[in-house]
């Protein structure tokens, strides 16, 4: 099963991707995590995308398409995968189609803009594996430490209020249009992301007809 998680920054895509990857036994592919890792390694890719990521703008489509095409061709993706944060533009969605990358369900997690900024100030991410936490809604077992790999948690550089506002704008201007694109082909499943992580997760599993 190939899934896309769509939604504004802070809607809970990363958190749901982590749950779904365990429940469905398919990998989660987060373009944001891949790019942050490239920046941390100081690779050519990391240097190329730093400016865009820091200001909360989108990285050029061709860069994203190259890293996603390479990742989905890997052996662990044969039974399916979860795209978290990709596609984010119409050309990215069209490129998936033209490369015959079949998508079964597109899950749009919807959260009121007013709630997003609040959520972002409490977000913490693992500096190594990218796992996502929230100091109140989804705290790690030990403060500041990742449950999964025991590395230290950090605040993302693009989670500052100004950058979050810009990222929300980018979402509404460039990504939200994908809801229509996928509604037209009957693949769009809308999930209320204002509810608890567990409830949203249950609704997602129901929407894609998964029995776990
Ligand atoms: P995320 O972790 O999904 O919030 O992504 C963080 C940042 O990575 C975004 O603000 C963009 O700069 C970049 N990025 C991640 N995925 C994409 C994508 N599909 N297209 C363009 N830029 C992306």
Describe the protein's architecture and organization.
- It is a single chain.
- By secondary structure, this protein is α/β, with parallel strands linked by helices.
- The protein contains 9 helices and 8 strands.
- A hairpin with a 5-residue loop joins strand 5 and strand 6.
- Helix 2 crosses helix 3, helix 4 (61-72) runs parallel beside helix 5 (90-98) and helix 6 packs across helix 7.
- The structure holds adenosine monophosphate.
The order of strands across the largest sheet is 2-3-1-4-8
Mean pLDDT across all amino acids: 95
Helix content, binned percent: 40-55%
Count up the helices.
9
Short description:
This protein is α/β, with parallel strands linked by helices. Helix content is 47%, strand content 16%.
């Amino acid at each position: 099963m190939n899934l896309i998680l769509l939604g504004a920054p802070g809607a809970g895509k990363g958190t749901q991707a982590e749950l779904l990857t365990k429940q469905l036994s398919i990998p989660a592919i987060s373009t944001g995590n891949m790019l942050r890792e490239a920046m941390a390694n100081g690779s050519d890719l990391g240097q190329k995308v730093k400016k865009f990521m820091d200001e909360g703008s989108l990285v050029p489509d061709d860069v994203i398409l190259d890293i996603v095409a390479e990742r989905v061709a890997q052996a662990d993706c044969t039974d399916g995968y979860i795209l978290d944060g990709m596609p984010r533009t119409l050309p990215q969605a069209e490129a998936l189609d033209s490369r015959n990358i079949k998508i079964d369900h597109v899950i749009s997690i919807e959260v009121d803009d007013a709630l997003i900024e609040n959520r972002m100030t409490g977000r913490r991410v693992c500096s190594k594996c990218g796992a996502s936490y929230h100091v109140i809604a989804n705290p790690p077992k030990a403060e500041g430490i990742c449950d999964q790999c025991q590395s230290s948690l950090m605040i993302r550089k693009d989670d500052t209020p100004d950058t979050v506002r810009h990222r929300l704008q980018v979402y509404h201007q460039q990504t939200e249009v994908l809801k229509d694109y996928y509604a037209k082909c009957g693949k769009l499943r809308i999930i209320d992301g204002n509810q608890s992580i567990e409830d949203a997760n249950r609704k997602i599993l129901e929407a894609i007809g998964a029995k776990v």
